[in-house]
Amino acid sequence: MSPVADATMTNTAAATDTDADRRPDLGLARRAALGDRDAFAEIFRRHGRSLYRYAVRMLNGDASEAEDAVQDALAKAWTNIASFRGDAELRTWLFRLTINEVTNRRRGRRPIAVDDQLLEVTPAQRHTDPSQHVINRELNAALDAALTELPWRQRSIWLLREVEGLSYTEIADSLTTSPTVVRGQLHRARRTLAIRLEQWR
Amino acid sequence: MSATDEWPEDFESPVLDMAAGHLRERSDDRWVEISNRILTHAMSAVRRSKPVRAQAPGGVVHISEQVLTAHLQTVVDGIPGIELDRVDFDLDGDIYRGIELGVTVRYNERIIPLADAVRDAVAIELAVLLGPVTPRVTVTAMVVHVTDVNQY
User: Fewest 10 Å CB contacts: which of A65, A77, B30, B104?
Assistant: First the structure.
């Protein structure tokens, strides 16, 4: 029998267990590309919630639109995952798909103009006996409200960096811009949000 | 401030950081309710798959690359110590010309015997599935990834 015509070996630091829970993202992506539905389900389990969380905040809390956006992004991921070769992180690739879907839906909405010199501090509720749970809930609501008033790109960058933990380079790749622009937009976003939440300091 | 200025990395806002932390930790109300629905719908999307010519007793038939890949995955995954992670068919129209396989081998496994086993198993399976086609079914190339169990 003739030997294998060509064998190229690479070392990768990855789990070998067939249990999808322990497999790294690239391994899961390869298996999903073969049609392994369990592998894709694990990808979804790891990243789906983050994609949805991002989509909800970018679509001003519209849960139904966010669900549609994430669903369409993941459908594209399922059909095109064979094209993912591991040049970037899988989550970056998934966020890029989600950003496209969210952006397409945003185009149908009226933009909210924001002058960051006129932003006001969001007043905190006064409680005679505030429980931490109530305070946290109100802070959460204040943040959500403040996010809807950020310019689109600042909002996206702040969420991707401060909530989802993507690097400047990953964010730049996802938004087709440069890390320098990302840093500048992030600084503006942080400044604006901090002012809006000053009352909770 | 211009894009070339240095942005202060230490712009501090404990309240904002705390709010960001809350956002990371809290669950959106509908997530549990909708997550299964999202996944089910996403995976119902149809993947494009090229047809591959096969020779059946009754004449020429076509089998999709996806179906062939699913059969090969079952065959290769049945070989201990090795796992299939990529299949690229080389087609001339709908005629099979060759196949490149990507496999993952556990560290310390003997690669050559495993690769030979995969090549033979895949060639046999493809011959069964495609029938007596011309040119004869062969496995063209294989890419082997070696993984290190000690990393986890």
Answer: B30
